[in-house]
């Protein structure tokens, strides 16, 4: 085999198959192949081998290969799992964040104002933590008291709302509207919700 | 596609396991093929290919993102395959290198005509027949041939994957191809 031909020619064949052959060398190879039948055969066999290798290079991994790999992986960090869940459910995430802020807002509002506050009405008397409606006073509209007791000796033409306090009604006292007492956080939230809905409906009116 | 893989690798580095699934399904056939070409056995190939992906996942922080991911991944796969071949040490006599031939063993010295009778060749699928002939090559030739005809990888890439000089890659491909030519010319 190739007794008369240079090893160099075979080297050129391989260089050609790897695409590393310069133009001048390619011409050298070509002219030799035209004159040498043995080398022609050799080159043809090499090209055929390459073609066979290429044609059989579409080996597929078994089915479930990816799933099996994923099963074999160590557990991922929890944090990332949560982050991905959040990304996959943006609306629920947004709702949850909104709810969280709302709740924290309500709670902090509840906890922070332990100061006594009264809705602005004239002629009310405030003693320590008690708001007194004197005997000869008539309050027009609703009376709202936060963080304090209420003693009504006169008259309130409207609702009385006491948040975090107690009503100390004098026998002569008179309230023409409702008397509401709100002492728990949830009562307070409920009160707020009712107030909001009432406002909404009164706008409707 | 490269950009997609780069993005996924970043996510995996941050610890996102699900992102790795896309990486696996993108490369599974390539990695499996390397292992199959080197080991010649579907069960072992699956086993080692899986192991390669798991190693890649566990060691993802050592991967330099400026480099090509496939090069890194194929390197893991070839190294694991070579390790497995070393542990097996089959057909010791025929696999032993013949001195002065740089890795060509008794197998590649056998005349191809005697490899299999004609009728048997025809009954075999060409695919598995070619694989059988590749298996007759010493592992280091198998490796370069597997990589060379997987996606037409360049010699430079193969030298990076196997961490051997370009000249050595060239020599091995030439000799491997020459040995296969002898064995496949009568098919």
Automatic annotation (TrEMBL), chain A:
UniProt domain Putative zinc-finger: residue ranges: 5-40
Please state what the protein is called. Anti-sigma-W factor RsiW
Provide the alphabetized UniProt keywords. Answer: Membrane, Transmembrane, Transmembrane helix
The residue range of the signal peptide is none
Family of the protein in this entry: Belongs to the zinc-associated anti-sigma factor (ZAS) superfamily. Anti-sigma-W factor family.
Q: Name one Pfam family in it.
A: zf-HC2
Looking up InterPro entries in the UniProt record yields: Anti_sigma_zinc_sf, Znf_put
Q: Which organism is it from?
A: Sediminibacillus albus
Q: Which sequence ranges are marked TM in the entry?
A: 88-110
From TrEMBL, chain B:
- Keyword annotations of the record: DNA-binding, Sigma factor, Transcription, Transcription regulation
* InterPro entries documented for this protein: RNA_pol_sigma-70-like, RNA_pol_sigma-70_dom, RNA_pol_sigma-W_bacilli, RNA_pol_sigma70_ECF_CS, RNA_pol_sigma70_r2, RNA_pol_sigma70_r4_t2, RNA_pol_sigma_r2, RNA_pol_sigma_r3/r4-like
GO terms, biological process: DNA-templated transcription initiation; response to stress
Q: Which residues form the RNA polymerase sigma-70 region domain?
A: 27-89
* Keyword DNA repair applies: no
Q: Where is the RNA polymerase sigma factor 70 region 4 type domain?
A: 129-180
GO molecular function (one): sigma factor activity
- Decide whether keyword Ligase is in the record: no
Please give the SUPFAM superfamilies that the UniProt record associates with this protein. Answer: Sigma2 domain of RNA polymerase sigma factors, Sigma3 and sigma4 domains of RNA polymerase sigma factors
Domain of life of the native organism: Bacteria
Q: Which PANTHER family match?
A: RNA POLYMERASE ECF-TYPE SIGMA FACTO, RNA POLYMERASE SIGMA FACTOR SIGV
Q: Which family does it belong to?
A: Belongs to the sigma-70 factor family. ECF subfamily.
Q: What is the name of this protein?
A: RNA polymerase sigma factor
Organism field = Sediminibacillus albus
Q: What lineage is this protein's organism placed in?
A: Bacteria, Bacillati, Bacillota, Bacilli, Bacillales
């Amino acid at each position: 085999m190739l007794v008369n031909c240079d090893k160099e020619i075979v080297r050129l064949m391989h260089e050609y198959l790897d695409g590393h052959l310069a133009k001048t060398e390619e011409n050298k190879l070509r002219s030799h192949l035209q004159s040498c039948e043995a080398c022609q055969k050799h080159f043809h066999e090499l090209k055929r081998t390459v073609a066979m290798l290429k044609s059989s290079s579409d080996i597929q991994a078994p089915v479930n290969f990816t799933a099996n790999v994923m099963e074999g992986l160590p557990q991922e960090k929890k944090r990332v799992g949560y982050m991905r869940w959040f990304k996959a459910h943006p609306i629920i995430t947004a709702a949850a964040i909104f709810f969280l802020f709302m709740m924290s807002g309500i709670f902090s509002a509840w906890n922070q104002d332990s100061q006594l506050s009264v809705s602005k009405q004239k002629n009310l008397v405030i003693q320590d933590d008690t708001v007194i409606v004197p005997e000869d006073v008539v309050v027009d509209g609703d009376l709202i008291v936060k963080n304090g007791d209420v003693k009504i000796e006169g008259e309130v033409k409207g609702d009385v709302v006491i948040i975090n306090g107690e009503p100390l009604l004098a026998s002569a006292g008179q309230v023409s509207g409702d008397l509401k007492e709100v002492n728990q956080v949830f009562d307070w939230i409920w009160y707020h919700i009712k107030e909001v809905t009432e406002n909404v409906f009164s706008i409707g009116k | 596609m490269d950009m997609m893989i780069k993005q996924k690798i970043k996510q995996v580095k941050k610890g996102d396991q699900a992102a790795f699934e896309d990486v696996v399904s993108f490369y599974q056939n390539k990695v499996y093929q390397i292992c199959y070409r080197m080991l010649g056995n579907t069960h072992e190939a699956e086993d080692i290919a899986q192991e390669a992906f798991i190693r890649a996942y566990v060691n993802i922080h050592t991967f330099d993102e400026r480099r090509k991911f496939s090069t890194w991944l194929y390197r893991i796969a070839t190294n694991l395959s070579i390790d497995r071949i070393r542990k097996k040490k089959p057909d010791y006599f025929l696999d032993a290198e013949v001195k002065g031939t740089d890795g060509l063993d008794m197998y590649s010295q056998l005349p191809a005509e005697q490899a299999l009778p004609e009728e048997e060749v025809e009954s075999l699928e060409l695919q598995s027949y070619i694989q059988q002939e590749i298996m007759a090559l010493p592992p280091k030739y198998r490796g370069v041939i597997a990589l060379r005809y997987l996606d037409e990888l360049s010699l430079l890439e193969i030298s990076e994957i196997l961490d051997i000089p370009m000249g050595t890659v060239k020599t091995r491909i030439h000799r491997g191809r020459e040995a296969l030519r002898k064995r496949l010319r009568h098919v």
